[in-house]
Structures are given as structure tokens and as C-alpha cells.
Design a protein that fits this description.
three-stranded antiparallel beta sheet; 12 strands; Cyt_P450_E_grp-I; signal; transmembrane; metal-binding; iron
């Protein structure tokens, strides 16, 4: 309904203006813009982008206009979509030269509360959003190595809590979300309180969906729900920050990303205001939450539907378990041996991408494939131009982990980029890898499972989820 009402009211107001402006909106100075259409006035092609399947949105336009690049207008921005492995390579290789990061307006709004109320003051000096987090190397292997045992024990506790011996049918998706948020809160905030965290799951879902939505802040809309959820999370985080500052004043160690954000200062010696810390942490938690939970859920689905893949993972994980003393937690060397399990995760992310793509802002006009993209436009890269393309993946619809074995089958460079690439490659890649592998290790050592409804509908594209939460029959190994 929200879509229909909005579409009609906009069409009535805007259409007369559209005809007047149409002539003026083409590129200046005779530059040859990419082929494509800006769609409707104001809304552009946002509806098709948000409510159609991403592969279809991109695929149709690649067929109609060009397999390399096309223009569109989505989420309020003139956007060039750069397609295929050559496009990925161009984008990832020219990050600093032509592009800077860009967040769609709904995302900016949800994660920038501290800037909305200070309109009168000059904006704070812009530093790279993540610099303060990347510096101490929280996402580097050596830092994550120390955290791996914790990932293992949290996963064990959560499985024990939600999938204990008395239970035979369970839903995978709620558990995946609970585990993932518990891990993220421990890693980013140093909080080890499952009750406090599980209250927030629904809010994080709402925010995740709202990041790519129409900015219509009226009751009943996706964006309105996201905004309310963001306020609730922000409130909780401000309490966490106060508690953390008290603890640090009495000598608690600086061990998590939140403590680090509290102590970090800019060149003028100013520390980050609490509201800004809260928004940045909320952004990190959101990024580390839905993507990992989605991948765990669909991995359980594909493995549950293939006993032969299950047996191979189990053999690999049992060998690792056998080399450990009772109660000993996972270590770095163990994870390096999980080669087949990682291939299964990669194949899950190919068929159900945890992230469809991201935007950049064009810093300086450039030419690609004979077309000019003006300064100030946005560029969108997406996995959906390569992930299920038979040109790059044989039998693309088939779930086949062996395609990542070193050999003639392995995907060609830039065809498989679930984490992006280049200098802006997802900083959480290694974190996600360890979190999912720790889950796989524990789940196959404890259970066998069958998917109750193999044809369960998948809803949503930006955050794909099984309609009924992926119910399974659980068989316990003893």
C-alpha cells in the first residue's frame, strides 16, 4: 500500500514539472553519458530497484542498454551502474582516484543523528569514517586470533541454550540472528549479556531493511519503523557508553572497539561525542549482524538439502575436533584447515549474497567504456552482474562448493566479490569468516538436520530471509 499511495501522490504533483525540466537534465558540454533512463521524476527508478529482484533490475538494463555500464536514478541520485568483472576491476583499482564512499540518504539519516541537531554549528572535520577503527587493527588476523576462542564458546552457549537435547524442530534464522548479535556485541562493545542483546534483534532487523528504503517518515512505512528502531538502539548504546566510561575510569582494560572509540582523539585533542560514538557503533553492529546471520541461515538450508556436502564438512570438522583436548577452544591453526567448509560458505554467498552492492560518489569526471560519468554522480557496484552469470559460473543455479577448488574451475578474477575489493574491501571480511566457521564447526559436530520445507519462500533482497525462519528437524549426535 505504502508504495501505491506514494506513487500516485507524487505523480500528480510532479508530472507537470517533469516536462519542464526534462530538457535541462541531460549532461552538459556534449559529454556522452552512459545509456539508460532516469525513470520517473523525483522517484527515478527507485521502486524497481527496491521492490524488484536485484538480478532482474540490473540484468534487464544490461540487456537493454549495455553489458558494461548504464545510468539510472535510484534513492535520489543519478547513478552509473558499472557491470561485470571488468567493471569491478576498474572500480576497485581506482578507489582514491575517482571515487569516495557514499551512503544512500536513508542510511545517512539513520546513522547521523549527531549531525541533525547541530545544523547551526560548523560540521566537524571529516575524517575517514573507519580510520579510527582500522588503526588499532581490530579486524586484523592477529587481533581476531585472540577473539576466536570467545566466538567458539559463545556459539556453543547459544546452541546449548536454544537447541538443547529436548528440542527436535527449530527455526534456524532466529538462532542465527541471536548468535550473530551476541558475537557482535561482545566484539564491538565488550558486552556479554544475551538478554540485553536479544531485546535488540527486532530493532536491528528494522534498521537493516530501512537503510535502503524510501525516506517517507510516516507511520506504517519501512523508513518510519527503521527510524524508531534506530532511536531505541541509540538509547541503549548511550547507556552502554556511560557504563563503559565508568568502568574505564576504574581501570577496566581497553579491549573492544567501543573502549577504543572512547579514548581516541582528533588532532586537536577532542574526543568523540557520545552521540557520534553511538551512531558509529550502531553502523558497525548493523554491518556485522544481518550479513553474517543471513549467510549462516542459507548455509544451513543448502547443507541440509545435501547429505553428501554435510558428510564432507563433518569429516573435515571431526578431524579438527579429534586433534583437541576436551573443552579446548578453536585456534587459528584449526580454522586454516577448514578449507572445504569455507568453500561451502563461499558458495552460499554466491547464491544468496549477504550484500547486494554499495555506492560511491564520483570525485572527478571519468570515462569508462566510451561513456563519461560526471563529477557528483554516484556509482553502484553489485554482485548481481556476475554471481549467477553462466559466462563465469558453470551451472550457476547449482550449489557446488567444489567450484572454488584451485583448478580450471575456480572463478576468474573479479567475478566473485562478496566482500567488494581494493582499498575499500569490507574490513569485516576476516571477522565474518571466523564467526561463520566457528558456527559450522559446532553445528556439524553436534547435529544432523533436515530442512522441513525446501521450497520455503525467500523474502527481501537487501536482507534476504526465509519466510518462516527456516524450520528444520534436528537430530542430536551424542
Amino acid at each position: 500500500m505504502e508504495v501505491l499511495a506514494l506513487g500516485l501522490s507524487l505523480a500528480l504533483i510532479v508530472f507537470p514539472l517533469f516536462l519542464a525540466f526534462r530538457k535541462r537534465s541531460e549532461g552538459g558540454n556534449g559529454a556522452k553519458l552512459p545509456p539508460g533512463s532516469f525513470g520517473w521524476p523525483i522517484m527515478g527508478e527507485t521502486m524497481e530497484f527496491l521492490f524488484g529482484k536485484p538480478e532482474k533490475f540490473v540484468g534487464d538494463r544490461m540487456n537493454k542498454y549495455s553489458p558494461h555500464i548504464f545510468k539510472t536514478k535510484i534513492l535520489g541520485e543519478k547513478t552509473a551502474v558499472i557491470c561485470g568483472p571488468t567493471g569491478h576491476k576498474f572500480l576497485f583499482s581506482n578507489e582514491q582516484k575517482y571515487f569516495t564512499s557514499f551512503r544512500p540518504h536513508p542510511m545517512q539519516y539513520l546513522f547521523r543523528s549527531y549531525q541533525n541537531n547541530t545544523a547551526a554549528q560548523p560540521p566537524p572535520p571529516r575524517t575517514d569514517e573507519l580510520k579510527s577503527i582500522r588503526q588499532p587493527g581490530f579486524f586484523k588476523p592477529e587481533a581476531l586470533m585472540r577473539y576466536l576462542g570467545k566466538m567458539d564458546s559463545i556459539t556453543q552457549q547459544q546452541l546449548q541454550m536454544h537447541w538443547n537435547d529436548d528440542i527436535n524442530t527449530v527455526q534456524v534464522y532466529p538462532l542465527a540472528k541471536s548468535i550473530t548479535l551476541t558475537l557482535a556485541c561482545q566484539f564491538f562493545l565488550g558486552i556479554n549479556n544475551p538478554e540485553r542483546i536479544s531485546r535488540l534483534v527486532k530493532h536491528f532487523d528494522d534498521v537493516t531493511v530501512g537503510m535502503h528504503s524510501i525516506m517517507l517518515n510516516i507511520p506504517g512505512t519501512t523508513f518510519y519503523r527503521a527510524n524508531k528502531a534506530a532511536s531505541a538502539i541509540r538509547k541503549e548504546l548511550l547507556n552502554v557508553i556511560k557504563e563503559k566510561k565508568l568502568a574505564m575510569a576504574t581501570g577496566a582494560p581497553v579491549q573492544d572497539i567501543l573502549s577504543h572509540m572512547i579514548v581516541v582523539t582528533d588532532p586537536n585533542g577532542r574526543s568523540m561525542p557520545n552521540a557520534e560514538i553511538a551512531d558509529k557503533i550502531m553502523g558497525l553492529l548493523t554491518a556485522g549482524y544481518s550479513t553474517v546471520a543471513t549467510t549462516i541461515t542459507f548455509l544451513m538450508k543448502y547443507v541440509g538439502l545435501s547429505p553428501e556436502i554435510y558428510e564432507k564438512i563433518r569429516a573435515e570438522q571431526l578431524e579438527i575436533a579429534a586433534s583437541k583436548k576436551t573443552g579446548e577452544l578453536l585456534e587459528w591453526e584449526d580454522v586454516q584447515k577448514m578449507k572445504y567448509s569455507w568453500n561451502v560458505i563461499c558458495e552460499t554467498m554466491r547464491l544468496v549474497p549477504p550484500l547486494q552492492g554499495t555506492f560511491r560518489e564520483v570525485l572527478t569526471e571519468f570515462t569508462y567504456n566510451g561513456y563519461t560519468v560526471p563529477k557528483g554522480w554516484k556509482v553502484y557496484w553489485t554482485v548481481s552482474t556476475t554471481n549467477t552469470n553462466p559466462e563465469y559460473f558453470r551451472n550457476p543455479e547449482k550449489f557446488d562448493p567444489s567450484r572454488y577448488d584451485e583448478g580450471e574451475e575456480a572463478p576468474a578474477p573479479y567475478t566473485y566479490v562478496p566482500f567488494g575489493g581494493g582499498p575499500r574491501m569490507c574490513p569485516g571480511k576476516e571477522y565474518a569468516r571466523l564467526a561463520i566457521l566457528a558456527f559450522v564447526h559446532n553445528v556439524v559436530n553436534k547435529y544432523r538436520w533436515e530442512v522441513i520445507d525446501p521450497n520455503e519462500k525467500v523474502e527481501g533482497d537487501m536482507m534476504p530471509e526465509p519466510e518462516k525462519g527456516l524450520p528444520i528437524w534436528l537430530h542430536h549426535h551424542h
